[in-house]
Amino acid sequence: MEPEMMGLLPLIIDFFNNIDVLMLILVRVSGFLIFLPILSSMNIPLQFRLFFAFVVSVAIFSSGNVTSATYHDSPAGLIMLIIAELITGALMGYALYFMFNVILFAGQLIDFSVGFSMVNVLDPIQQIQVPIMGNVMYLLASALLIATGGLNELLKTFFYSYKAIPIGTAFILGNKDLAWYAMMAIGTFLLLAMRIALPVVGALLLVTVCLGIVVKASPQMNVFVVGMPLKVFLGLILISTVMLPSFNAIYEQVFNAAELHMTNMLEGMAINGTASP
């Protein structure tokens, strides 16, 4: 046997001796990629997503961060561990997915104020009906996520999740810290959505109040004939002069919040009741 093959033989033996570890890594990675922005898109072929999940799993397995998995030596014990690892990855991915959807919610608030709420478009990434401004802003955020290397940062954070939560150690059921971090994510979601939409929504609210005063002063005026075109016109001006030029700052806020709450979910599953409001 050639020397090169003799050197690879121990690695091959170690690989097959720990094939269950690789499988469990693949389960957590798959749960994470189900909700990861962009890579979870239905437009990306399933074969590519499966191949990407396998490549990431092999990279984590080869890094040496994961060396073993402890579980009951029975089919039921292995199945329970597979479910726990799938939920662990899915919770981290959903934290990102949830926070990035704040852009769609903010766009919906803007569309409702401007008058575009009656018209929805198909989001090519998520394959769902979304508001016009929400779709535009989400596509811009997805482009920035790739262009700025944000997707690599999210994968890097997931890569080191095995140090915080080794296989089979995630604390999920009855975890009050995990529930607290989930409520914090909801609060951050609403706060960010209002902060993003407030420049347009607030300005158009003032326009509505002014139109109401005008109608009281001149009841003969048809406010619907004047108000709807005026709100659309002013809304487009505000979007083009306020929202789009400051979108880099909006993206930074959303990305930082998504990364923070993904890390919070990691900490919540790794500790037992030490977090407090």
What general outline do the C-alpha atoms trace? elongated
- First-to-last CA distance: 63 Å
Helix content: over 70%
How many DSSP H or I helices?
11
Largest sheet: 2 strands, antiparallel
Taken as a percent bin, the fraction of beta residues is under 5%
How is the largest sheet built, in terms of strand order? 1-2
Q: What does the model show?
A:
With 277 residues, the protein is mainly α. Helices cover 74% and strands 2% of the residues. The protein is built from eleven helices and two strands; from the N terminus they run αααααββαααααα. It has a two-stranded antiparallel ribbon. Helix 5 packs parallel to helix 9. The longest helix is centred in the C-terminal third of the chain and has 42 residues. The chain is elongated. The N terminus and C terminus are likely disordered.
Structure characteristics:
277 residues, mainly alpha, two-stranded antiparallel ribbon, 2 strands, 74% helix, disordered N terminus, disordered C terminus
What is the topological layout?
Layout: H1 3-17, H2 19-35, H3 46-63, H4 75-100, H5 102-114, E1 120-122, E2 129-131, H6 132-147, H7 150-159, H8 161-164, H9 176-217, H10 223-243, H11 247-270
Antiparallel strand pairs: 1-2
Helix pairs in contact: 2-3, 2-4, 4-11, 5-6, 5-9, 6-11, 9-10, 9-11
Précis, in short:
By secondary structure, the protein is mostly helical. It has 11 helices and 2 strands; from the N terminus they run H-H-H-H-H-E-E-H-H-H-H-H-H. Helix 5 (102-114) runs antiparallel to helix 6 and helix 6 crosses helix 11 (247-270).
